[in-house]
Amino acid sequence: MIMEGEINNFIMVWVSALVSLCYCHTIGKAIPKGTSRLLSILPVICLFLILPLNLTTIHLGGPSSFFLAWLATFKLLLFAYGEGPLSSSSKPISFSRFISIACLPIKIQNHPSPKNPQKPLSTKNNEHPSLQRPRHFNKSPLNYGTKVLLLATYGPVHDNKDHLHPKILLLLYSIHLYIALEILLGIFAALTQALLGVELEPQFDEPYLAISLQDFWGRRWNLMVSRILHPTVYNPVRSISSRWIGRKWAPLPAVIAVFFVSGLMHEIIFYYIGRLKPRWELTCFFLIHGFCLAIEIAIKKALNGAWCLPKVVSGLLTLTFVAITGLWLFMPSLIRCEVDVKIYREAATTYMRFFKDVVSVLRSHFFDVVLVPEGFLKAKILGSK
Question: Which residues, 6 or more positions from 219, have their beta carbon under 8 angstroms from its beta carbon?
């Protein structure tokens, strides 16, 4: 009954979101960009921050809160001023594309023509990783197959968590979290690509191969977030900072501001998931990474490419730093929200109901199925009715 109520709430949440986005699409045609448009869509932004409170499960509430309360609200803020993926300089984008881009964590890939290949990026953009365009790549079925198999180990790990060292358990959970995010976002991207017939930019690019924090956060990890935070936070802060400390060093406070906002948004998402008062561990995690990334950028500017660590060494240091800070500040917040328990319980409930439905169909059409005391199924073929 709980899942049935959650599904009803889920439908209500997304119907409300779609109706609100229809309104925003209409507003975009009727009201010019600027403060007037912002005031017109501000109620929708407030609604998107409230809607996830109607959901309590991880599988439905988690993605919905991320899509609506974070990505959609930031996209609408940009849309109010004629910026971002929901706006077009030539002509208004179609309704279906507006809805898809607003609701889902996707970005349409703009391919150069074969006769005019993309030129290398100017070194002026190297101060911030999110300015780099992602490499075009297609992951092999073996890549996804391996990750699905690794994700399937979540059940056995959860069943034996009392026998594992707490840090080892958190490390395994963090691997599962990354794989689940990549698969989930990949599914949404594949469905959208099939429906709209467009090429989409990747969400993850093997973050375990990162050779620096710049590489990890800007080119490999959850790229949709960095692309949204760049125009909404990075650009305005860099513009303001350049008046005080000059254009050369203005990216540094802008980077810190991006990570601070990211930390706050993670606190909000985790509140939707766990309904627990924030302890600001997530904000500290992202602030630490923001300051360290700013230091990394400053060192690179000072050295101007004169010297750098071997990629093997820098990659190992990067992953070690991410793992240590993640196990210290990020993963405990997940455990405090009982995300591991909720995922296991919801998955077990779903699989059990699916199993019962399959047994019911078999009994109705093909087999006389009896559950014997030993826990095995005894089937007598009756033939199809």
Answer: 129, 132, 134, 135, 205, 210
Half-sphere exposure of 142 (CA within 13 A, CB side): 0
DSSP, collapsed to helix, strand or coil, labels residue 26 as helix
Q: 156: buried, middle or exposed (CB in 10 Å: 19+, 13-18, 0-12)?
A: exposed
- Is 0.85 topped by the overall pTM? no
What residues are paired with 380 via a beta bridge? 368
The closest of 98, 15, 104 to 63, measured between CA atoms, is 104
- Using DSSP's 3-state secondary structure scheme, residue 130 falls into helix
Q: What percent of the chain has pLDDT over 70?
A: 81
Q: How many CB atoms lie within 10 A of CB 324?
A: 11
Longest dimension (CA), the chain: 82
Q: At what angle do helices 166-196 and 95-103 cross, to 10 degrees?
A: 180
Query: Looking at residues 249-257, what average pLDDT do you find?
Result: 95
